[in-house]
Structures are given as C-alpha cells and as structure tokens.
User: Fold these one by one.
Assistant:
Number 1:
Amino acid sequence: MDIIAGDIGGTKSWLLWAKVVDGVVSVCFEHVYASADFVSADSLMQQFVSDARQSASPAVVCLALPGPVQDGVIRLTNLDWTLERMALQAALKTPHLLFINDFQAAARGVATLTASDYVMLNPAEPLAGATRVITGAGTGLGLAWMQAKTKGRYHAFATEGGHIDFSPANPQQQRLLSFMRETFAHVSWERVLSGPGVNQVYRFCLQDMTGEIPPALGARNGAEVNAAALAGDPVAHAAMELFVDIYANWVGNLALLYQPRGGLYLGGGISARIQPWLQTPRFLQACCDKGRMSGLVQQTPIYLITNTRLGLQGALAAALDTTMICDEEATI
Ligand SMILES: Nc1ncnc2c1ncn2[C@@H]1O[C@H](COP(=O)(O)OP(=O)(O)OP(=O)(O)O)[C@@H](O)[C@H]1O
C-alpha cells in the first residue's frame, strides 16, 4: 500500500512517499520544497509525484495544512494557496485524501518521538493521562491540544489560537503593540511570534533604542536577526531577548489556559533554531511570571522538540491511523 504524507508550511513543504508491506513502513522518497516556488498546492503535488517516480497510486494522502481546515475549499493563512479537495483527489488518483491542521499533525507526531527528539525546558514530572499542548513559532504560530483516550493514545484538537489578540505584559511590550498597530489593524500573537514577527520586533527595537526610522519590512528576516544578535549587534540582541520574553509569556498563558500537566511542547521551525535562548533562566522566569498562579506554571513539564520532522511524522501517523494498518504508534 502506498501513502503520501506532507507537512505544508508558509516557507517550506516537506513531503514523503511511503510503502507499507505487512505493517512495516518504509519511506521510498522524501523531499523538502520551497513553498514560494509554487503557485498552488496542486502544482507542488504534481512536482512531487513526478519526482517520486512511483508507479502505483497512493491509497491514502494526508496533508498537514497551515490554517483552519474546513470542508470543501481551504485557504491557507500565510500562503496564497487555495485547496479544492475534489480536484486534488482526482489529480492524485487516490481514494482517501485527508487534510488536517499542521499543529494537529504535530500533536499526532508527539507520540512518535523518542528521548533524543526533545530537551526539557522545565523539568516537572509529567502526569500520565493529563492534557498535552503543542505550540510553535515558524512562518506562523500554531497551537493544538491533546486529550488522552484509551491505551495511552491521544485525540488531537486543532485551534487558531495564534490569532488571539496579543497582550503586552509590560511597558516595553505596550510600546511594541503601539508600533505594530501602525502596520496591522489586528495585532495577534502570531504577528509577533513568527519569522515575520522577529523582523517586526527588530524594527521596533531599532526605533525604541536609537530613534532611527526602521527600514521597510523584509530588511532583516528572523534568521538574520538571530545571527546578528549572536554576532554582538546590540539592537538584534535586544530584539531576540524581547521575542523570547514574549514567547515565554505565551507559553505561560497556555500553561494556565490548558493546565497541560501531561506536557507543553514547543515545536515549529523557530523554536529549535533558538534553543540557546530558550534554555536561559530568563525564559523560564518569564514563563512563570504569572503572579498568584506562578506555582501552577512551575508544575508544567515544558519540552523543546528538536526533531524538525515532527509535522511530517505526524501526517504519516495520521495517514496510517486511517488505514488501520497499525494499531500501535507508527515510528519512522
Ligand atoms: N535562526 C532563526 N531564528 C529565528 N527565525 C528563523 C531562524 N531561521 C528561520 N527563521 C524563520 O522561521 C520561519 C520558517 O519557519 P518554518 O521552518 O517553521 O517554516 P514552515 O514550516 O514553512 O512554517 P509554518 O509551518 O509556520 O507555515 C521563517 O519566517 C524564517 O524567517
């Protein structure tokens, strides 16, 4: 049986073709594409099928998508693509086309992780059967939560929590909010906690610290700001500290909102790339800075996922779930 799984992102799309024989899964082709190179998901999938050079049609295709997944036509949030289920299913010649939210896939992927795939940021003891949460900054800011069901497995629920209104926690963050309101009518957490958000925070710091008129959008992307900070640029350093403080505020808020004593996981493309910043005492202090509820946050096990294939593994596991091939967790 042939399966296609994909983790579609605003920056990159990661796809694989797997074969399942007697319950054993083997990946025969895998590739990462730059999403901006394609005008549509259809053209990306066409390229992938051509590159994979497989003769059989896939029995299941599961695509993890960055945006609200609804029936019929799906519009992605940070990518100008619209997916039409019927058309794509016909083009891929598959009887089963499954669309899931990208963080729902990441949540499904958590069960496939091994100890070398994450590091602990807050070493609290996880409670078996308790709620879990996964969030992460990348091109956007994803969030899903998980509720235990039978046999130690979890149901994963997608949210659009990244689009909740950003709430500043101190005067500096209030100034950031005012700065961002000059550009965006609605300033969500995602506008701050994402690759484009790092750029916004850097521009704000430049203006706040030096009074300089910040350069136009696109002047420095997340990776460049991070690299400049590590090279000793004081404005970039302040920007990364502010970004990490706000990431911590967000994580602390989720600890209170969901009380995920089973684990609060950080994924997305940015988290693993800023690991040293997340492992400073400053990050954990800011997470737990919740007044009378600080102790509750301290009880939350917080993990940084370093395995960048999480979403792809989750999409494959979700595809396998639908075929009932594996009753146990699929590990690839
Ligand atoms: N070292 C870094 N520090 C901060 N930001 C970074 C770094 N490297 C890349 N980025 C930013 O991360 C973003 C890409 O994230 P990611 O790898 O999660 O892409 P994606 O999977 O396509 O995103 P999404 O799933 O959120 O649509 C880009 O906006 C980029 O600027």
Note: Residues 9-12, 66, 78, 102, 138-140, 195, 198, 221-223, 226, 268-270, 273-274 surround adenosine-5'-triphosphate (CB under 6 Å).
Number 2:
Amino acid sequence: MTIASPSPLLALDRITVRFGGLVALNEVTMAVPPGTVVGVIGPNGAGKTTLFNVICGFVRPQEGSLHWRGEQLRSHSPRELAGLGIARTLQGLGLFAGLSVLENVMAGAQRHARAKGFATIFGTRKAAHDEAALTDRAMHVLRELGVDQHAKAIPRMLPYGVQKRVALARALVAEPAMLLLDEPASGLSAAEIDELAGRIRRFTETTSVVVVEHHMDLVMRVCDHIVVLNFGELIAEGTPAEVRADPLVTEAYLGADTDTADVSGARRA
Ligand SMILES: Nc1ncnc2c1ncn2[C@@H]1O[C@H](COP(=O)(O)OP(=O)(O)OP(=O)(O)O)[C@@H](O)[C@H]1O
C-alpha cells in the first residue's frame, strides 16, 4: 500500500500555519488511508503538535485544506470531532478527576451518542436503557484494554500506565473511524510500550490511527507510513524502512538533544 491510495479518510493539502513570523507548518501535505497507522515524527519544534492541532481543529491553518472522507473541513472545532468519527488522546491524560474510570469512559461514549443525535432524556425508560448500553460498551472496551478491574477506581489513584489505557478506552469507546494519538508511549515502561504496539496494530481492524510520537521504536514498529517534519517542512515520508534509510532524516535528528534521536528503530535498553 502507498500513501497515494485512492480515497484517503483524511487528506491534508499544503497546510501552512504561522504564529506571527514563525512558520510552524509550511505546505504540509499528507493522507491517512483507511485501516492504516500513519506516524508523524520530527525533532523538537518540528511542527508535530501543530499538525495534530490542525487535524483536531484547535489550530486553523492560514493556507491549505483538509478533507475528511472526501469533504472539505472548513472550520471544524474539536467538539465536532466525535460527530465526524474522529477520537483523540492528548499528551496530558485529560481524565476527569472527580469521576471513576468507568464514568470517564462513559463520558467518551456519551459524547459520541450526543454527536450521533441519540440525546438522552434522563428519567425515561429509554434513558435507562441507553445508560445500560453505554455502561456495557464502556466495560467492554475497558476489558479489551485489560483494565476493567479498575472500573470503580478514581484514575489518579492508579499507576500512570493504567491511566493512559483509561484515556485510550475513552477515545475507543466512541468507535472512531480515525484515532489520533499524541505521544501514547510517553511515560510508559518498555513492557507497556510492547503491549501498546500490539494494540495499535489491532486497532487497524476497525480504525485508522495517526500517531504523533517521540518514541522512535514504537513508531518504527507500528506505522505503515511515516511523515517526517523538521522546522515545519515535510522533509521525508515513506515506510519505516524508507524513513530510517533517508539521510535527510538522520541529518534532521543529528544534534537533537533527546534520547529519541536514534532513528534506527533499534530498541534501547
Ligand atoms: N501557540 C503558539 N504560538 C507561537 N508559537 C508556537 C505556538 N505553538 C507552537 N509554536 C511554535 O511552532 C513551532 C512548532 O511547534 P510544535 O509544538 O508544533 O512542535 P513539535 O514538533 O510538536 O515539538 P515538540 O516535539 O517539542 O513537542 C515551534 O517553534 C513552536 O515554538
């Protein structure tokens, strides 16, 4: 498969974002075909988060266009993502502190239900039925991610890796056509990253995934296609093997001050 496959779910065409005089993204073009994992990588300040925010509708590009399922998104907002079939996890976990794990995940499902127009009217028999269905669905996703035993817990009392899975469950419960993951590996142990890699590959049975990630090992293992940004420019793209072999990519990472500068994809101890 190549990125030029017909009918991508999401297509970005020459997206340019400027913050004052700074060009955070310069004519970046990329596509996300159905059933694929697309990675966005690049050194610090390359424009990854800005790209993620453009897709989410947090940042409006000055130039260029986005198409979702062939239709142009002119001024979508983050609130409209669920209705489009897009779910996201953010760098911060973004879990509701006062809600249990199950309630957090149900909040994700309710956002989806509202977006689909199944408004819940509390106190009716239908509402009780909807509530039960949402609970079932939320429990099912928690079970799939191996954290259902924590359903009644308050998230902050749980290990960070478990909280990350809860945040993932909250995104997945909406049954998105596309899942946006911002640094899903950050703060996880090597064993947890292994598990996450397997899980992301399994997601492609039902959803496309866009992953913005510093952790090179994860990106190289899970992505079908990788887009490399540097100073807002798309400097390389291709399969993990192509990106790994691209001298421009190595050059961009040289001097990068993080331990993620190794683009060989070799696992670090
Ligand atoms: N709201 C903003 N206002 C001004 N400049 C911004 C804003 N957001 C990002 N930038 C700048 O745009 C450039 C790209 O930033 P961005 O956060 O997208 O990079 P990144 O690749 O996600 O970096 P990192 O890996 O460090 O998170 C940087 O120079 C950053 O300082």
Note: DSSP finds nine helices and ten strands in the chain.
